[in-house]
Amino acid sequence: MSEQNSVTRALFDEVMVPNYNPADIVPVRGEGSRVWDSEGREFVDFAGGIAVNSLGHCHPAMVATLNAQGSQLWHLSNVFTNEPALKLAKTLVDSTFAERVYFANSGAEANEAALKLVRRYALEHYGEGKEQIIAFKQAFHGRTFFTVTVGGQPAYSDGFGPKPGAIDHLPFNDIEAFEAAISDKTCAVMMEPMQGEGGIIPADQAFIERVRALCDKHNALLIFDEVQTGAGRTGKLYAYEHFGVVPDLLTSAKGLGGGFPVAAMLTSAKVAASLKVGTHGSTYGGNPLACAVAQTVIDVINTPEVLANVEARSAQFRAGLEAINAKYAVFNEVRGMGLLLGAELSEAYQGRARDVLIASAEAGLMCLVAGASVVRFAPSLVISEADVAEGLARFERAVAQIVQG
Fold this sequence. Notes:
It comes from Ferrimonas pelagia. Keywords: Amino-acid biosynthesis, Aminotransferase, Arginine biosynthesis, Cytoplasm, Pyridoxal phosphate, Transferase. Belongs to the class-III pyridoxal-phosphate-dependent aminotransferase family. ArgD subfamily. The protein is of the alpha/beta class. It has 2 domains: 2-58 and 304-403, Aspartate Aminotransferase, domain 1, CATH 3.90.1150; 73-301, Type I PLP-dependent aspartate aminotransferase-like (Major domain) (Aspartate Aminotransferase, domain 2, 3-Layer(aba) Sandwich). It has helices at residues 2-5, 9-15, 48-51, 60-70, 83-95, 107-126, 145-150, 154-157, 175-181, 205-217, 240-243, 269-272, 288-301, 304-328, 353-362, 385-403, and strands at residues 27-31, 34-37, 42-45, 100-104, 132-136, 167-170, 186-191, 194-195, 201-202, 221-225, 249-252, 263-267, 331-337, 340-345, 365-366, 368-369, 374-377. A 7-stranded mixed beta sheet has the order 4-12-11-10-7-5-6, with helices on both faces. A 4-stranded mixed beta sheet has the order 1-2-3-15. A 4-stranded antiparallel beta sheet has the order 13-14-17-16. β1 (27-31) and β2 form a beta hairpin. It is globular.
C-alpha cells in the first residue's frame, strides 16, 4: 500500500499533458457500483466513467471473457478477420436496422468513419457539390478535427487553424431552422437522439420525424450519434427505437465495451459499399479482445431483465431527485431517458454544477456535469435499488451542503 500511496494527484502535474484537470481522488479499485480510492475511501458510482461502465466495475462475465480471450488471441490486424468480430457484427446486425458494421476504438473514430462515408457516398452517387453536413449547436461528436468541427461547441474546435468546411450548425429541436437549411446540396445530417454533453436534451418527436422526412426528400443521409445513448443506456438497445425513426448510419461506443475501448459504425449494405477496400481503416478496430468483451456486454444488456432494470432504476432516480428538490429547490427540471439523466440547476444555482460534483465527491458519490448548470447521472445499467438509494442519500448531503453555503 505504501507504494500505491506514493502515486498522488501531484504526480499528474509532473508527467501528464495539462489538457485534463482530474480530481484529487485517485481511484484504485472498483466492484459493481462501488469504487475505492488510494486512501481507502468508498464511493457510490453514478458517473459510470461517463456512460461507459455499463455493467459497473469488474463484472464477473466481463472478467471471465477478458481472461479467456486474453489467453487465446489478442490482435491480428485487418489482413485477417476473426471470430469475435464476426460474431459481434452478426449480433449487432440481428439486433438493429443495420446490415453492415465497421469497428473502431472510440466514439470519435466511429463518427469520423461515418462522416467520411457520407461525403464519399454523396460524391459517388450525386457528384460534386452535394457536400453540406448539417449538425446542431451544443452537440458533441468527438475530438478528431472533423468530428469536433461537426460538434456544435466552438470552444472545443477553435484555436487549431482552418477547419473542415461545408458544415452548418442549427439550434436543436428547431424545425423551422432545419427546413430553411436543408437542400439538395445537403449530403448528411448528424445528430444525437438525445444531446449528452449539451445538457441531456432529448429530441422532440416531431423534430426527429421531420429531420428523417426531409433527409429522404433531399437524398441526404441521417447519422445518429448513439455513442452515449446506445448499448441499453436509455432502456432500449439503441435510443432510435424510442422514436420509431431509423437512421441511415448509427455510431456506438462508450457502453458498448463496458470499459474496454471499442466502437462500431452501423449502416445499410448500400451505403457501406462506398467504403471500398483501402478507403478507410483502423489498426486495432475489430480486434478479438475488444470484440469478445463487447459481445459479452451486449449479451448481458440486451435482455428483458436488464432493460427493465434500467427503466425501474430511472423511475427511482427521478422520484429521489424530486424528493430532494422538494426540500431544497435546487433544480428547474430533471430530464433524460433511462439511466442517462440530467438535473438542471435552478436560477439561484446556475453555473454551479461543478460545485455540486465536488460536494458529491466529498460525500462519497461520483457524478458528472453536462455543461455548467446540469448535473448528469450515468450509472451502471445493472445498479441495484439499494445502491441507487445510498447514492441519492449521499447526493442529498451534497446538495444540503451547497444550499447551506
